Amino acid sequence: MGCCVSSMSAHSHRFALVTVVGVATAWQAQILSCSAGPVSARNVRRLLSFQRYLHSSRFIRGIPASNPLGYILDDDYTGQAKLMLEKVGNWNFDMFLFDRLTNGNSLVNLTFHLFNSYGLIELFQLDMVKLRRFLVMIQEDYRSLNPYHNAVHAADVTQAMYCYLQEPKLAETMTSCDLLLGLLAAATHDLDHPGVNQPFLIKTNHYLAALYKNSSVLENHHWKSAVGLLRESALLSHLPTEDRSERLGSLILATDISRQNNYLSEFRTHLDKRDLCLTNGRHRHFILQIALKCADICNPCRPWKLSKLWSEKVTEEFFHQGDIERKHHLEVTPLCDRQSNSVANIQIGFMTYVVEPLFVEWSRFSDTRLSQTMMGHLSLNKQGWKEGRDKQEANTSRASEEQRTSAAKDSNSKELPQGSKRS
Ligand SMILES: *[C@@H]1O[C@H](CO)[C@@H](O)[C@H](O)[C@H]1NC(C)=O
Ligand SMILES: *[C@@H]1O[C@H](CO)[C@@H](O)[C@H](O)[C@H]1NC(C)=O
Ligand SMILES: *[C@@H]1O[C@H](CO)[C@@H](O)[C@H](O)[C@H]1NC(C)=O
Ligand SMILES: [Zn+2]
After folding, report:
1. On the CB side of 253, how many CA atoms lie within 13 Å of its CA?
2. Which entry of 11, 13, 55, 149 is annotated as an active-site residue?
3. CB of 226 closer than 8 Å to CB of 248
4. Are 182 and 251 within 8 A, CB to CB?
5. CA of 77 relative to ligand 3 center, distance in Å
6. Ligand 2 pocket check for 202: Cβ under 6 Å
7. Which residue's CA is the nearest one to ligand 3's atom 10?
8. What is the average pLDDT across 333-358?
9. Cα separation, 249 vs 291, whole angstroms
10. How far apart are the first and last CA of the chain?
């Protein structure tokens, strides 16, 4: 598991990219000497497999919140959802709203719509029934109890991927095969995500960590799950196999953030040399990988209202992991510790050291209005979190100052004249 920080500038070095990406040689060293014995690890594993059981129970998962106004409202919702799909290429697309309007079916409805509008169904002679069934299986294999890594995130990433595929450089060069794989990879890239990160799976001896030898454990699992569902649905069984599974895997594996610097330095080199040639299939595949990486971490580039909601959700998931760790006396992952972190701080670090470097290069590659819009939001959102944090800090220090002053007044009211300031 290589987290290569060598290409990062000195000032960003001190930041625990390690923390943000939850990688960590340092972290693993701690795990090795971690006092958490096999007993508590086994407990956690049991807990996780119970959660898995719970989540995978179709009785619990598949049921959307019941709609008291019944089908009349459903019709209205469907109409509104259709209207939204007419503007599916808008960067302001509100996936939370779309998910409500489709009764929790955002991933199915969006992906089906995109397949249809790209003409992929006719071109690849896809069976509509199989396609729907396949998409429903995908949607159901995301765990709806995860605050962040659920089907709505997958739908959002798929929508962002579509926006990137529509950018001139890609739209002019991507083949139908590329489009099919790009959308499939986006829709499945976090399939069956357990809601905890790789270091957690490793230190609790989760079977997935052993299966994938501690390396891109989650991403391998997402990929293999996707291949499993493709096979089960027989959606593409009439097409030549070629290297479809491998390409799908290579796209999904690219979303492993601990490997971001490898992709980033390759991307930079290409851009510096100006040698990307999108008639070349290998180069197109590389750009698809980068596009999917961008789509996966584009939350901070969305309008504030949406961006903030995603941030709160991902932090909730991190903190939930931290709570499990504390409860089971495991080392609490720094990023997951609600006692020492705030949404604002996590976001500012994420934006500065993970998102910005990637989108700066993407904007060099595709210097369009969309890229400018994304960079604009990124900068505003970062400002937003900074202002929030500063206000909070000012408030906290004012509050504690007041507390101290009034405590001092209480205990020392005779010695301290009114209005005197303690330094
Ligand atoms: C959304 O998907 C569900 C499940 O496949 C389907 O019943 C519904 O008709 C779809 N709605 C739209 C607007 O496509
Ligand atoms: C994975 O990491 C754990 C904990 O560091 C270690 O005990 C185990 O041997 C590793 N497995 C492999 C296949 O490297
Ligand atoms: C500041 O503190 C007060 C009381 O402690 C609280 O009511 C208020 O919401 C806080 N404002 C901010 C911006 O955190
Ligand atoms: Zn993701």
Report:
1. 16
2. 149
3. yes
4. yes
5. 38
6. yes
7. 395
8. 94
9. 15
10. 50
- Answer whether residue 27 shows pLDDT above 70: no
Q: Look at the alpha carbons of 377, 383, 387, 393 in this order and tell me if their dihedral is positive or negative.
A: positive
CATH 1.10.1300.10 fits 107-296, yes or no: yes
Q: How far apart are CA 411 and CA 293, in angstroms?
A: 58
Helical ranges in 204-274 per DSSP H:
207-211, 217-233, 244-253, 260-273
Using the mean position of ligand 4's atoms as its centre, give its distance from the Cα of residue 193 in Å: 9
Atom of ligand 2 nearest to the CA of 203: 4
Is ligand 1 within 6 A of the CB of residue 108? yes
Query: What is the distance in A from the centroid of ligand 3 to the CA of 311?
Result: 21
Q: Is 213 in the pocket of ligand 2 (CB under 6 A)?
A: yes
Instruction: Report CA-CA distances (Å) from 3 to 16, 140, 350, 386, 400.
Output: 11, 32, 16, 27, 40
Gap between the Cα atoms of 88 and 110, Å rounded: 8
As a whole number of angstroms, the longest Cα–Cα distance in the chain is 90
- Rounded distance between C-alpha atoms, residue 15 and residue 350, angstroms: 10
Domain ranges of the chain: 107-296, 299-398
Ligand 3 centroid to Cα of residue 396, in Å, is: 8
Nearest ligand 3 atom, CA 391: 13
Q: How far does CA 118 lie from the centroid of its chain?
A: 25
Q: Is 238 a catalytic residue?
A: no
Q: pLDDT of 41-84, one tens digit each?
A: 444 544 454 444 444 443 444 445 455 555 555 778 888 999 99
What pLDDT, on a 0 to 100 scale, did the predictor assign at position 75? 76
Name 302's Cβ contacts closer than 8 Å, sequence gap at least 6: 91, 92, 310, 377
φ and ψ at 226, to 5 degrees?
A: -65, -45
395 lines ligand 3 (CB under 6 A): yes
Atom nearest to 399 CA in ligand 3: 5
